[in-house]
Amino acid sequence: MFFHQPAQILARIRSRRDQKAKEKRISASEISNAGKMINIGGRPVVVPTRSQIPAAAHRAETIKLALAFAAIYVIWGSTYLAIRYAVETIPPLVTAGVRHSVAGGILLAWAWARGFRPKREHWAAGLVVGALFFLIGHGSLHWAEQYVGSGLAALLIATEPMFILLLAWAMNQQRISRISALGLGLGVVGVALLTRAELTTKGSSLLGLLAVLIGSLAWSAGVVISPKLKLPTDALGRTALPTICGAAMLLIAAGLTGEFRATHWASISLKSELGLAYLIVFGSVVAFTAYMWLLQRCPPALVATHTYANPVVAVLLGWLLASEPLTVRVVVASAAILGAIVLIRRGERAATAKLALETLHTPETSGSETRGSEECA
Fold first, then answer.
1. 8 A C-beta contact, residue 174 and residue 376
2. pLDDT tens-digit readout, 95-144
């Protein structure tokens, strides 16, 4: 019996070896069904193929992207009409102050919950940016929409890239290429066509047109100088502090100009209440959240296409819902301004690429030049 034990042991070893080989064949077939195996760092790694990623996940991601782009395209484009409805029975500075107080408070609370803690220098920078963006920029826009159509206001606000280019050039932060210069000229033509058409329309006002352009200039100035200020690096905090500061200044301005005393709270229409609520919830919170979400998943240039869509949406909504005029001249002027934005952005990209090539040829100074170009952007 002793002589049979080695044979039994060998039989068991062979049986165990055959069983392990069978398990390896099964696991290998399962791996091949799961996806493609590649070697990373000398180790086998299974990479799922695109067709094996659940179709439901693809659909869900596609739907989220579509909704987010719809938010920054349509919602931000529709805020101009919402402003017009809100200021019908609510004074403009009160409207802007309440809107940004609530929206800024929500954004600041959100940032605080994520661990953001503002410093004194952040508040100082927020005061400067808040004055340019909201007190002058949005304050003048809300005031002007008492006299200027929402579609026209959106088209004039679309001149911001032109002002940004001119201000950056005046501060020696950026060069104006030939393409950008052509865009500036085309934009001037578009603005001239718009102002000429609207000045002859009932209900228009030269002061209203100038107020929108001043607001666009103020917002552009904030864009140019904000990189030089000590704003928070946190994205939510960077938006919340100027919004809160601007809202406080708007409410102070509303008090100094007597808008609170002149407000007939009992006479505020439902349309104005809904317009203000829409500006707070959708215009500020929902659209901004979608904007930040898209920046984490899409190229910034693709996200920035909302600057082309917003004026078109505003003009169409003003025509459909508020009976604002949509003449051939307005269409031509709109095309001129949108074409100007395209040319200016193309010129900026060409200038950036040229600067990058020059930096590569001068490595000893590449560090400082690169930092400067990043601050300009």
1. yes
2. 999 999 999 999 999 999 999 999 999 999 999 999 999 999 999 999 99
3-state secondary structure of 377: coil
pLDDT at 41: 43
- Number of other CB atoms surrounding residue 2 within 10 Å: 5
DSSP string, 42-73: TEEEEE--GGGS-HHHHHHHHHHHHHHHHIII
Domain boundaries, the chain: 68-361+370-376
In single-letter form, the type of residue at position 118 comes to P
In the chain, the N- to C-terminal Cα span, in Å, equals 88
Selection from 24, 240, 209, 38 nearest residue 125 by Cα: 240
Q: Are 284 and 103 in contact (CB under 8 A)?
A: yes
Pick from 371, 308, 375, 373: nearest CA to 161: 308
Q: How far apart are CA 232 and CA 119, in angstroms?
A: 8
Please, which pLDDT band fits residue 88 given cuts at 50, 70 and 90? very high
State the pairing for strand pair 43-47/36-40.
antiparallel
Cα 285 from Cα 287, distance rounded (Å): 6
Residue listed under structure tokens 């869509």 = 309
DSSP classification of residue 138 = I
Write the DSSP string, 91-125: -HHHHHHHHHHHHHHHHHHHHHHTT----HHHHHH
Q: Name the packing angle between helices 92-113 and 235-256 (round to 10°).
A: 150
Query: What's the rounded Cα separation, in Å, for the pair 119 and 306?
Result: 32
Cα 43 to Cα 285: distance, rounded to the nearest angstrom: 46
Q: Is the pLDDT of residue 216 over 50?
A: yes
Note the pTM of the prediction, 2 decimals. 0.75
